[in-house]
């Protein structure tokens, strides 16, 4: 069995099976019917109408509910599903559109299923689960909602946007007391679909599933993915925005977040003058997600803004520490909880390049990786503009001062993260220079971002002192061709001498653990209907139906894997031709 060593702990269990389902008619056509609480051992009100309910080993008493959202906000009074401008509400009730063809369960995250949703992993083998995660069955307690929001896209106000292909199917509070909002992506049209078809394709869905789970295990705040299903429904996409439209397969991801509210959620209300509703939404967010802020505090919105500023700076610094470029940093894609959401044309930087742009439609490079911190400041300023109608003059002045401190928050966290990547202990006034010096060398040589730090965590100080770089450290060998490399090494070794109580062995172990390097084996189980994947840069192209089992197991294999920080290239390496 082949084994690969990968530069992150992707501790998810990805399972593909060929479970089919029959007719996928929505379970409950009247959303009001679902509002009644389910008593212990009670039958759902629609049972006996020919629909199958969750069995005793399934989700018969699962606590999914939309009540907290529906009871807290006005709901769009128009129940017909057509594209329109919506006002004076936060959500529209709209049901997912089931696929017309057979649906296959492609992947599940065992951690999400068992440790967030409190379900047994065996539930994945039931047809009811398949129908639920594919939008074909609305379970008791769930009222599917599409969220109304706006946003600034590529620097300009875009007006009403909203969930154009996503349905928030309920809120679940698990045994740990964590509140999670479940959302289907690719589940059909909503009043916010604009010119879209409401669908997602397998290619982009695989990317979101894998990356959101990988980011979690890298320690970066993110939404999670529970499952991925694929159909044979035809979806047409212009993948590279060059006029070449191709047929792809429709897919749906069940994804979770503590909240899906974003900066654009507040912007649309401020732009529409719906200040009472904006205040109501803010109070809800603070009460549910910011426990350190008192809901009756007159400065609660100021404290909320201050928290979002510091946490957004932290998030973007974390992105930079792993070479992650989001690709579409619009205000409608920036979470108010400062987590990574809406994985679209993202990418992981391979060669270090501050101008790396993963989004082929970003012609001007607005969202290049080196500009993400600046874009974060732009987005936070738009959040402040949305909040200003609710602030008094004193609070506005203080909020502006808070925003001015964003840069310091970011650079402080950035330095902390890269100091750890270099195995440095304590603070030194020259650390910023040392880090910047290294990054400049890497930029000049287009050094591999991940492998440079990885090999620094493995090479000994004696080898560095002698500038003896073993052949297997290919990234450092290339970097060593820079005329200033020896000067940087001297500075680095001098700084390591200031690590009190440290040894070279401890340094290397600490760096390896901090960088998240673990060894994993993989195996692929093929079936007669196995398709194949091929990779091109940051894209995966599905060709035929896939039934693949990726089972990552921790091992002690020491064989090196020749980098490429793009997660999807790693996955494609497992299943490529």
Automatic annotation (TrEMBL):
InterPro entries: SelO (IPR003846)
Record Pfam families: SelO
Keywords from the UniProt entry: ATP-binding, Magnesium, Metal-binding, Nucleotide-binding, Nucleotidyltransferase, Signal, Transferase
Signal sequence range: 1-22
Superkingdom of source: Eukaryota
PANTHER family: SELENOPROTEIN O
Record protein name field: Selenoprotein O
